Amino acid sequence: MLKQDILENQARSIYLGIGSNLGNRKAYIEKAKSKLIQENINILKSSSYYESLSWPNPKNPKFLNIVVSVSTSLKPLKLLEKCKNIEINLGRKKTYKNSPRVCDVDILDYKKLQTISEIFLPHPRMHNRNFVLLPLFEINKHWRHPVTNRHIKSLVLSLPNKDITSIKQF
């Protein structure tokens, strides 16, 4: 029964992706985690750091990324607002899409919710991104995609070989 309770709680978890590819990347990620905690967003589990090429332009600085499991009483839109405010507070500037940035905080999965109106849940491209799937797999080997119901291991294995080998733990 205890194992089932753990799996059910993991199934209803909230996962955030945090990344940086400018300045002291690790420090920016740690500051983002601190600011989440200050906003009463509890970090339950944090992955290792993963370094990957910048996408879509690999000539931009490399990204450092983590995935965290969090708990909060905030609804998805309010959580998104807090995440965007943390990015701005840490110095993120509004520039062109996929430009280098000091901090990026994305909601990957909010308790398996599926929405496409004001906020896209789960994150619409997470299942194609090594810098999301590998750290998520590290912290929850039982996670399933809310839309496709595909197991995290299946998603990781579906990545092209070059995507898996181009990422490394930092």
Structure description:
The structure is a single chain. With 170 residues, the chain is α+β, with helices and mostly antiparallel strands. The chain has one domain (9-169): 7,8-Dihydro-6-hydroxymethylpterin-pyrophosphokinase HPPK (Alpha-Beta Plaits, 2-Layer Sandwich). 35% of the residues lie in helices and 22% in strands. The chain contains six helices and eight strands. The chain has helices spanning 2-11, 25-38, 76-89, 130-139, 152-158, 161-165; strands spanning 14-20, 42-46, 50-52, 63-71, 104-110, 115-116, 120-121, 168-169. Strands 1, 2, 3, 4, 5 and 8 form a six-stranded antiparallel sheet that branches. A two-stranded antiparallel sheet has the order 6-7. The longest helix has 14 residues, at 25-38. The model is unreliable at 1-11 (pLDDT under 50).
